Amino acid sequence: MNKFLWTPLLLGCLLVACAPTPSGPIAESSPRPAETLPEIQGEEVAVLTHAPEVPPPITRKHATKVIVKMEVRELESRLADGVSYTFWTFGGKVPGMFIRVRRGDLVEFHLGNHPSSKMPHNIDLHAATGPGGGATSSFTAPGHESTFSFRALNAGLYVYHCATAPVGMHIGNGMYGLILVEPEDGLPKVDHEYYVMQGDFYTKGANGERGLQPFSMKKALEEKPDYVVFNGSVGALAGDNALKARKGDKVRLFVGNGGPGLVSSFHVIGEIFDDVYVEGGSTVNHNVQTTMIPAGGSAITDFKVEVPGTFILVDHSIFRAFNKGALGMLKVAGDENKGFYSGKQDDRIYAAEGGAVQEMPGATRPPQPGSQNKAERIARGGETFTQVCAACHQGDARGIAGVFPPLAASDYLNQDPKRAVNAIVNGLEGEITVNGAKYNQVMPKLALTDEQTADVVTYLLNNFGNKGGEITPAEVAKVRR
Ligand SMILES: [Cu+2]
What we know:
The protein is of the alpha/beta class.
């Protein structure tokens, strides 16, 4: 009946039910029984890198404790020329910082959430075996730090992402990255390793519309992104930012797909992947043109560059490449190799097309009729609560001591429900007292319509032990003025 109710169900799966069950033929033939894991010797602090750089290969021959320190920051930066976006990041950029460990390592993860953040965040590492991949243990309010540890049981290239409700919005704002768990003997040596991660972005304005663009939940639900990009912005891997190699080099791309919505058909124009570690696992495929990378998945592609020129990285769902930004470049220097390729290559053809941001028709939506009665208002308000308020005030509305005040049986709210309207419409900061406890935090003003605001406050008043009543859109409009 309503899409938002799926969010808690999905989160429930992410947090609880998705841990693998060690039974059945797959588990029996799996090469990862925990007993074979080596003893932990010593400890070290992980070197983390921003894309497209990758930390150096691991040379040690023993398992160790690896301390990973990652800081979540919410910051505005460039999405495309003239277009900015408030990204939520693991480490200050999209994608999140690359983590490199060795199978058998004990990873001690420190997740800090910068005090300037407006949202709580957590991390689900697909490389971790445990409830939520760490998400249940790493819920971190602004200005806090969480620590948890996991053993890297399986070798492979894994996605990590935020799994705080609404999950799709946190991922959609850029909260994903890659962690490589090297096999004990390492990967074959190559000349260059690079980190490339695809993601789709859903903006209120159409592709190319200038200014700071807010996230569009509507387009995200329809999986119709305005931007599909590599490494967080249009052009992040083009022109001067192109990946580089020399003729004869072996190049390895660690490729991830953060989604949240699309599956990538990853292809390098003019190259053939000699080896593809399919889905980032241990099976190696040879002589591959295009490799499929699911949302929340990865692939490792190795290839030798025999011919100089500019090679274009694309999602071969090709409108995404030439019209929405999923286009990168690998520039190979060196003398021409006429034996392998006779013609001249020129990257300007591609740059011209890829650089042009086309206007897309704006998303039009017929005006929705407002809630017809109090029951409908409460039902719709519940959706907004789950989608917007629960991230901070929690699903049970009890809040988090010292950080997010309770909305359940809140004397502050019940004394004057217009205060809740005011908090939503204008934001709220400064010291307040709720049920005898003091809070001095910041609630950002929320971009809700008068209807949505009336609905959610009415929902609150009639749930969680509050006093009942109804707020109408007209009353909200008055507060807004
Ligand atoms: Cu988050």
